[in-house]
Design goal:
465 residues, 22 strands, 17 helices, alpha/beta, seven-stranded mixed beta sheet
Length: 465
Amino acid sequence: TSSLVGSEMCIRDRIYRMERCRILSQTEKLHFIGIGGIGMSALAQYALRCGIKVSGSDTAENEQVKKLAALGAKISIGHARKNAKGADAVVYTSAISEDNPEYLFARDNQKLLMKRAEFLRCVEQAHDLSVAVSGCHGKTTATAMLAHVFACANKSATSLIGGEDSDYGNFTFGRDIFLTEACEYKRNFLYLTPDVAVILNIDNDHLECYGDLDHLVGAYREFAAEGIAVVNADDENAVRAAGRNFVTFGMKNAAMYTCEDVRSEDGRYSFTLVEYGIRQGRVRLKTEGRHNVYNALAAVAAARQCGVSTAEAVRGVEDFKGVKRRWETIGELFGKKVIADYAHHPKEIVSALSSVKNPLVIFQPHTYSRTKLLMKDFVAALRGKTCVVYATYPAREKYDAEGSAYTLYLELKKAGGDAVYAEDEGRLLQTVRLRAEAADAVLALGAGDIYEVISRQIEKFGRKV
């Protein structure tokens, strides 16, 4: 399958090179289906900066939708055929179905229909240098760090960040460098041909798309084949995907970019950067968590392949202050600090839980397929903690009892875990009220709407920070 996709890319390459001028230079109006998504909204901002009229639709208003409306985009809440009228081309996300009325309108009227990944490819081709950050964990933070690095180095970069950076939001505009997260879901990252391909890690995620880990590693290898791979030397699967042209970073195994004398003060890490065996001085991060040392090493290694000096790269990672929902303290509830984190894979959960000795964990599973495939791993990650399992965030999926939050709760109880199931916000609040007193902090984990849910409760019954 991977080789077939690769052949398809070669054919599409020629099409993209012909279409990109028309899309980015001659198109008067673009319509985005699912415009409120973090990735789609960044692309819509790019189109607006290119002078293209933008319209779009989504199922609900959010901060991204409000931002785009303020920038001049015409936004519709809800999907209807009329929303796409007047558009020269329509961009859609993988999350929509082919019976979406705007998708059908575009197809019926011979409009140019493009997947988000296809349009992303067109944007990539409009820049001289392409950097793409991949991995199952950490790519939003590493991408945001690189955006800061390029800014500190006075490089003109278009950055598409899969979260809200504290300074830049999810987007920066530039003419020379293209920087993006590269999502492996449905092989979407194979539409890109980055000059610098960062592989932070490869884990058993999205196996509903790939079947097994070997096929997933093969897709990463194809993703990184055209340029320089920047690979985590401490991740066996990432090393397998490296190919022939690569540089390495890491903390344990031998690597071209590594660190010494790693220290933590109030959760914030510092280290001595070592580049090809030569000590380059201290790096002092403003963000908490040991995992950010890996992200910083990856960002420095990638930036160096783009002609950024070591000193500029260090200034950039030190300038980075964090991304919303990545180990973010959002307030207090019932006298306890509440920390929100995007962790939605068992390994991410284990990493998050290692930072607090006695947390009350609120976990919202993200998609039924992931929960079903990794049920044993989720149970192993959570069973040693006091845990509230909140109703599944289904994203693009239909209900599946075997992968539901309630089934995860039952499996946790069966394994001897201290778990409670909360179907709605009322039950969640009641449980947190009863259990928070015995905890050191409350951790709200998940990639769904748990952030908004717990933020509402803090606003009503706690204190925001």
